[in-house]
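Two proteins were folded this term; both appear here.
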Amino acid sequence: MTGPAGTRGPAAEPDTSTRQRYFEDVREGEEVPGVAYPLTVYRLVMAAGSNRDFNSIHHNTEYARATGAPEMYANTGLLLGMWERAVRDWIGPAGTIRGIRGFRMRAFNVVGDTTWVRGRVASVGTDESPGGDEGPGVVDLELWCENSAGVTVGPGTVRVTLPARANRED
């Protein structure tokens, strides 16, 4: 298969790292584009190594099944990283993540399945500074993970701030 610029291999995902969301452009109910994560053995082993969660339930089928799980499955750090990627792609480089609430495991995200992070804008507002001035644009995003079994994580809320167009330096 031919990828971008005639290179061999799969087509690259769109580069969203330089796209900036601005507070004025956000609407309540707006969808946060979904991000898919095929859960391969390689991905689970790399995640275990990167976040030092070497519990065998995350990289050994027999061990995971002995604990009652259907198969080896994604750990919390990997799933939180999936949420962060989806949010950062949406907010752009000048946006900030303020906090995460309601991240709750509901079902396994097992090897061989694909986990999707999906979301929507739950609320749009502003912070007020101690002097009464209007602060940055605050957006609450409702996020969740789902796979072939349905919703597996969440829903939860990720609070972000976005720059205003009026504050933009050209």
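Next, the second protein.
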Amino acid sequence: MIEIPESYSFARQAADMLSGRTVTDVFNATHPHKFAWYLGDPTDYRTRLAGKTIRAAEGHGAFIDLLLDDETHIALSDGVNLRYYAPGAEVPPKYQLLIAFDDDSFLVFTVAMYGGIIAFQKTFDNPYYLGALSKPSPLEDRFDEAYFGRLVADAKPNLSAKAFLATEQRIPGLGNGVLQDILFKSRIHPKRKLATLGDAELGRMYSSVKSTLREMTDRGGRDTEKDLLGRAGGYKTLLSKNTCSEPCPVCGGTFVEEAYLGGAVYYCPACQPLIK
């Protein structure tokens, strides 16, 4: 799933690979998906996009934004998988959108559970997209300790650490995936209430948000996600479905996996005690 490390690093990759490429054709879904969302009728995407050249790509929160001529955008939300195929490559049989370029290369967009492939001009009036554009990212200097402190002060004290960091789009693009290593490195249990966290623990949380997301991004995303060429990201996750059966790298104990707030959480009960 696209979270901050993937939106930034994959957008950088898309800019390097696609800038200057002109769209020659657009093909609609071979495998319709009721949770693949578009803006308007996707059969109009050929008219909107054909003949336009990709000029840049940017990452914003959980969105990858491809920027074309005439202030035209293709915004991809969390849940969309993006793959680049070189000229002559075999076209996969199932996709939700395919864009062909003037050198016979092409981009394939697929959706597993849900996701938006949004083609628009100038502005997209969506609160999640606009929030990702306007709110400070942990990768930016303006996301400083004072800003983080204001987020904490504005949150209800009975919120858990997971709920605070990964819900309500307080920090766009910080989701359940990157949350696991952030909390492990700060030694905070995902169910700890904000009211039980002291200044030192909140300071560790802030530092972990900044440093963990920066490392994930600099390494090209997490190893649980695939880039435009289908390669796993270079950041090896400490806590994920891939590692939950391994011993804790700090204490050697056993990780716990459980469902919480709509997704699995992983933690070490010794390194991340639940203090009430």
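The two ends are 32 Å apart (CA to CA). The helical segments are 4-18, 45-49, 127-134, 145-154, 161-166, 176-186, 199-218. These notes refer to the second protein only.
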